[in-house]
Design goal:
CATH architecture of the largest domain: 3-Layer(aba) Sandwich
Number of helices: 14
CATH topology of the largest domain: Rossmann fold
Order of helices and strands: HEHEHHEHEHEHEHEHEHHEHHEH
Strand content: 15-25%
Number of domains: 2
Radius of gyration: 18 Å
Structural class: alpha/beta
Shape: globular
Number of strands: 10
Amino acid sequence: MLPIDLIHQARSRIGSHLPRTPLVSSSTLTRELGVRVSLKLECLQKTGSFKPRGAFNKLLSLSADEQQRGVVAVSGGNHAQGVAYAASQLGLRAVLCMPRTTPANYLEATRSYGAEIRLTDDIHAAFALAETLRQAGMTLVHPFDDPLVAAGQGTIGLEIVEDAPDVTHVFISIGGGALLAGVATALHGLRPGVQVIGVETEGADAMARALAAGRIVELPAITSIARTLGAPRVSAFTLEHAQKLAPEVVVVSDREAVAALVFLLERAKILTEPAASCVLAAARRVAQRFQPGDHVVLLLCGGNVAVKDLCGWLAL
């Protein structure tokens, strides 16, 4: 299990490189859900998601020799931008192995940070290429199966407890599970009574299936529009953290995630991606469980969405 000391170390390491994101109250959602609701705006982090936290912590932990040889990562979304941005700020070479189906806005943003992109036929080929580059001497920055990456993401949990010491529930999106593992570790370490609820979308529910089966389950395909939740499987590392710290995962539909996205945009003036807005959909699903005096925090993990995609989702 991830030690909370590793998360505190991560905050000291990355603090001068990334801003602290705000936690704001939502009177509209407080009225709707019947309890105090706050939004952790990680969608306002550099690159538009939480990913640079883990990337910076990993890259800053490398030896001088490892930094000189550069890093490689696999991603079809936010992890690519996080690694590319961190590498550019630290002057390191970064190679991103990305499927050809990656949306153009993600490719353009990743290139803008100076990373080298290698396009592959699919995500499996991307991992194979990354392994070849790792064997050649580059360091692999895994999107979720790495304690240093998870510790970097866990710094969000420290901020939540400091800004909302009375927090009772935190809803967290799950892709591969490092965000959940890190944040849940920080929350339970500082506030053991906090309920952490994981959230996935139908067609990108690798963690829910793994928890139900008691083992890692590989999805045959990712069918959800929430592409940044699209890990085909979780890892033993992240599954263990979910089992012990957040055994409940709420799975919502794409339609529910889009409805929540539109609500957040129109009422809270916050643009999120479906992988983030799904946490509001999940909170709506279980709102009848909340008790007077509860303080619910929705972790809005990213806001990287193309206008073209957004317009298409409105038809769901």
